[in-house]
Design goal:
265 residues, alpha+beta, five-stranded antiparallel sheet, four-stranded antiparallel sheet, 14% helix, elongated
């Protein structure tokens, strides 16, 4: 897309917008599922998918995975049945670091470590570098989206607003969810870090946990709701889309003036 311009400046906003539009439409239409084409294990920026000039893979050797929380098997509960947890610091990085330089071999014993991801932190841990060494990743923020995994009842609507990092979800059920059988939602930590996420529900309580399963760390929200029509809204961290790590948004004139107390004539 854009004659590989994203590989030159790290700006994947065009790709992110296109992918987000497709996924948003699929969520709104209420389809049961869809296949995402494609995953190519040897994709790279220069040669793409190594076949017929195509470059469609969601994975590339020249990119790195989304950052995740380093602590599996831990849980963050909602403070009250209808409560939420909110943090005011929203300065976590927008994109992952450049590809690893570790040249050690990938074997079954080291596979899990090779697939591990860097930690999300509210503190800036990166150092400035050239675009060439921090190419970002392939618009992963647009396709790594929250989604119901197991529900008590029938899903009536679901959708993810990428620009505002807001997930909405509703269902209708004849019986209430229980401790043994809750409604469970995949909640990607890139958009919804546990210390910086607000949850609103119509009934019941909820918890957010990161579990080591399916070959990696999976963050999920478990919801123990009542019977009938129920809904939830989850708000995460809004980020500038398609931006490489270390390349922050430039402040506009108005924002600079507002922070420094100058007057507009």
């Amino acid at each position: 897309m854009d004659d590989k311009y994203a590989y030159k400046n790290g700006d994947y906003s065009s790709q992110s917008s296109a992918i987000d539009a497709n996924h948003f439409a699929l969520e709104a239409c209420g389809c049961n599922g869809y296949a995402w084409w494609l995953y190519m294990a040897t994709n790279n920026h220069e040669w793409g998918d190594l076949w017929n000039g195509e470059d469609l893979s969601i994975f590339s050797l020249d990119d790195k995975a989304l950052p995740l929380h380093p602590e599996p098997n831990s849980e963050v509960p909602g403070p009250t049945p209808n409560g939420s947890t909110v943090s005011v610091d929203r300065n976590s990085p927008a994109f992952s670091e450049s590809r690893s330089t570790d040249a050690s071999p990938v074997i079954p014993e080291t596979l899990k470590n090779k697939l591990s991801t860097p930690s999300i932190s509210s503190h800036k841990s990166y150092t400035p570098s050239e675009i060439g060494s921090t190419p970002g990743f392939r618009a992963a923020e647009a396709y790594v989206r929250p989604s119901p995994m197991a529900t008590v009842g029938n899903v009536t609507s679901t959708g993810f607003d990428l620009r505002n990092a807001t997930f909405t979800f509703s269902l209708e059920c004849k019986t209430a969810a229980t401790e043994e059988v809750p409604t469970e939602v995949f909640l990607p930590e890139f958009h919804f870090p546990r210390d910086n996420t607000a949850v609103e529900v119509t009934s019941g309580k909820w918890t957010i946990s990161v579990d080591d399963k399916y070959g990696g760390l999976i963050q999920s929200l478990r919801w123990f709701h009542g019977a009938g029509k129920q809904s939830m809204t989850v708000k995460g961290v809004k980020r500038r889309q398609g931006m490489a790590l270390g390349k922050e948004e430039e402040e506009g004139y108005y924002e600079v003036c507002r922070q420094r107390g100058c007057s507009l004539m």
